[in-house]
């Protein structure tokens, strides 16, 4: 996952590790080796990725949470699946919060935006 703050040409710090593992959490993970800390893009080991425990099949909404020390405006989000397998995100929503308690879904024209990635 790569996040670009608006007006910046560099990433937020998820990809390069500027945002440390302690600031990445997930709703669940399939195994310890598939937790949010493995969701970084351009990892030297292409077998790394985040895989939730349920893949949303039981009606739960799985998520990765990134805790940032400062507020920012998000410009774009990049995702990548597990190259040697068929595990990848096909759609996602973005929610934001100040303080991590009350979350707001990103909307355009009053509708929650669902981003679709095609592979």
Tally of structural domains: 1
Tally of strands: 10
* Spatial strand arrangement across the major sheet: 1-4
Instruction: Let me know the largest β-sheet.
Output: 2 strands, antiparallel
* Structural shape: globular
Assembly category:
single chain
Question: Approximately what portion of the residues adopt beta-strand conformation?
Answer: 15-25%
Write a concise synopsis of the structure shown.
Helices cover 0% and strands 23% of the residues.
Summarize the SSE layout with pairings:
Blueprint lengths: L1 E4 L18 E3 L37 E3 L7 E5 L12 E2 L2 E2 L7 E2 L1 E2 L2 E2 L2 E2 L3
Antiparallel strand pairs: 1-4, 2-3, 5-10, 6-7, 8-9
What descriptors fit this protein?
119 residues, mainly beta, two-stranded antiparallel sheet, 0% helix, globular
What this model shows, in words?
The protein has 119 residues and is mainly beta. It has one domain. Helices cover 0% and strands 23% of the residues. The strands form 5 sheets. A two-stranded antiparallel sheet has the order 1-4. The mean pLDDT is 78.
